[in-house]
Amino acid sequence: MTARAQRRMLNEVKKNPRVSARDLKKSLAHANISVDESTIRKTLNKNGVHGRTPRRKPLLSRKNIAARLKFAKEHLDVPQHYWQNILWTD
């Protein structure tokens, strides 16, 4: 793989980090660059771009939904200045 092809591939990954090796292979094929998917993965790994899958967020359970609703109802009439001392960590 040429240095020019590597730069092109890295630029595409920077634009869209979720692009797959198969899609990169197709986009490089449009530029008349024939590269295997494993070569693409190896090249990206050498350049510090590693494939990761996003962590799955757990769904809210009925118990958690009830606890949230209870909290909201309990604090419905709390004055505005009460919330200014709360540290929110969303």
Structure report:
- The protein is mainly alpha-helical.
- It is 56% helix and 0% strand.
- It is built from 5 helices and no strands.
- The longest helix has 13 residues, at 3-15.
Tally of helical runs: 5
Let me know the average pLDDT.
90
* Main beta-sheet annotation: none
Unreliable segments of 5+ consecutive residues = none
- Gyration radius over CA: 24 Å
| Number of DSSP E strands | 0
Order of helices and strands: HHHHH
**Oligomeric form:** single chain
Structural class determined from secondary elements: mainly alpha
Strand content: under 5%
* Separation, N- and C-terminal Cα atoms: 44 Å
Share in helix: 55-70%
Indicate the overall shape.
elongated
Protein name: Transposase Tc1-like domain-containing protein
Domain Transposase Tc1-like: 6-77
GO molecular function: DNA binding
InterPro entries: RNaseH_sf, Transposase_Tc1-like
Task: Set down the secondary structure blueprint.
Blueprint: H1 3-15, H2 21-30, H3 37-46, H4 62-74, H5 80-83
Descriptive key words:
mainly alpha
How would you summarize this macromolecular structure in one to three sentences?
With 90 residues, this protein is mainly α. 56% of the residues lie in helices and 0% in strands.
